[in-house]
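Priority: medium. Attachment 1 of 2:
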């Protein structure tokens, strides 16, 4: 790969444009005055041990672990809007990641791309890209065109490694009616979290990948009852591959010293158009119920898939729409039924603000995969996180994630991640 300095030049140029617009200009005042520029410094160490000889093959033998270490720089520059009936603006993401450690025998953490084939597979020394999006706003309706980190219930860009995933396309967001937000758009490019290139939108089953010309979507969310209740309805299609609909209901209810919450969802998907991936059939029924009091939060969740196809999502995207999605697994196999218990604690209750601890356990069964109809799996995940509250390093956060996964079909894992984030405000 060529040096990524040239990849970041558009970011520097766009940042210069934002800074150079005359502040005294009446029309440009909002463009500059409301601009925000941050530089995120992300140091990420990832170590995944494959147990019981379940890891992938690398260099002619079972891969014992995927272990890599990176330092990433994430420039996020967002202008305000120029003044006038129609306001215009510009958003820029400059993304660059450097390999600090990682050899040919420990590739595959998805912190870095993988180049080469066979025994020549290796991770490059660095990678990156620049994402630029233009935006226009009239009243409470915004049009955005270009490339950015888009997170929608029906399409969630993943930010779980060195650099965030981005999509290329256009989106309209309108909030003209109080409480109601409408969305619509099309994406036709996908740059995954461990890739500096822009590829077509795609969906993979096993080793088969099916490319599509575009991902079209529309949806709406209505919030009422003092914003305590939300109803969301979404529909999307990955052209000539699959179509998917999602209905969601969330509610939060104070009860004395407690706050009770619910997140209910139903997702259905099937083939679309030319059906490049063949006949598809997937349904998801799910619910998560939370209870918070003081510094404690508890959750129980249930997720059930039916149909012959796994949960449908564009390659590389997050499974966060599913209530049992976690760091290491989404429990989204055909016919799988899974449940979760989770506890979060904020140590501010013990006089240590900024320190939090999360533990969860997820168990799945009835998996139809690998020639079986009764496969099972389970996972345990913990996260200990601390954010510095004051001083020179204020807002610097340190997260340690420790996980275990055991499966009848697939890889058994023991995993550790150490993630250090430091956001610097430049404007």
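Attachment 2 of 2:
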């Amino acid at each position: 790969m060529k040096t990524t300095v040239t990849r970041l030049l558009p970011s520097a140029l766009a940042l210069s444009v934002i800074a150079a617009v005359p502040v005294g200009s009446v029309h440009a005042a909002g463009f500059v005055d409301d601009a925000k520029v941050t530089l995120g410094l992300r140091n990420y160490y990832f170590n995944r041990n494959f147990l019981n000889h379940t890891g992938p093959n690398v260099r002619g033998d079972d891969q014992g672990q995927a272990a890599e270490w990176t330092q990433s720089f994430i420039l996020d520059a967002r202008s305000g809007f120029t003044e006038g009936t129609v306001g215009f603006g510009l958003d820029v993401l400059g993304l660059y990641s450097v390999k600090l450690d990682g050899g040919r025998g420990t590739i595959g953490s998805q912190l870095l791309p993988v180049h080469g084939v066979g025994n020549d597979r290796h991770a490059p020394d660095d990678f990156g890209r620049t994402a630029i999006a233009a935006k226009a706003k009239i009243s409470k309706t915004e049009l955005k065109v270009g490339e950015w980190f888009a997170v929608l219930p029906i399409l969630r860009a993943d930010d779980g490694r060195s650099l965030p995933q981005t999509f290329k396309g256009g989106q309209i967001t309108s909030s003209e009616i109080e409480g109601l937000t409408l969305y619509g758009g099309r994406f036709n490019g996908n740059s995954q979290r461990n890739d500096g290139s822009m590829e077509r939108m795609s969906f993979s089953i096993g080793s088969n990948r099916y490319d599509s010309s575009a991902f079209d979507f529309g949806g709406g969310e209505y919030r009422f009852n003092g914003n305590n209740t939300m109803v969301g309805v979404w529909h999307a299609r990955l052209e000539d591959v699959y179509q998917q609909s999602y209905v969601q209901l969330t509610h939060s209810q104070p009860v004395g010293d407690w706050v009770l919450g619910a997140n209910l969802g139903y997702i259905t998907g099937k083939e679309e158009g030319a059906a490049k991936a063949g006949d598809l059939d997937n349904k998801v029924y799910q619910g998560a119920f939370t209870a918070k009091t003081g510094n404690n939060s508890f959750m129980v969740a249930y997720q059930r898939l039916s149909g012959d196809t796994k949960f449908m999502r564009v390659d590389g995207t997050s499974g966060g729409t599913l209530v049992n999605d976690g760091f290491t697994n989404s429990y989204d196999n055909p016919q799988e039924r899974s449940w979760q218990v989770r506890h979060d604690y904020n140590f501010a209750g013990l006089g240590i603000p900024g320190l939090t601890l999360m533990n969860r356990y997820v168990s799945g069964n009835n998996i139809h995969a690998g020639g079986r109809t009764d496969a099972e799996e389970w996972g345990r995940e913990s996260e200990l996180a601390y954010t510095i509250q004051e001083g020179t390093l204020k807002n610097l956060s340190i997260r340690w994630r420790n996980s275990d996964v055991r499966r009848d079909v697939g890889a058994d894992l023991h995993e550790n991640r150490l993630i250090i984030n430091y956001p610097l405000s430049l404007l």
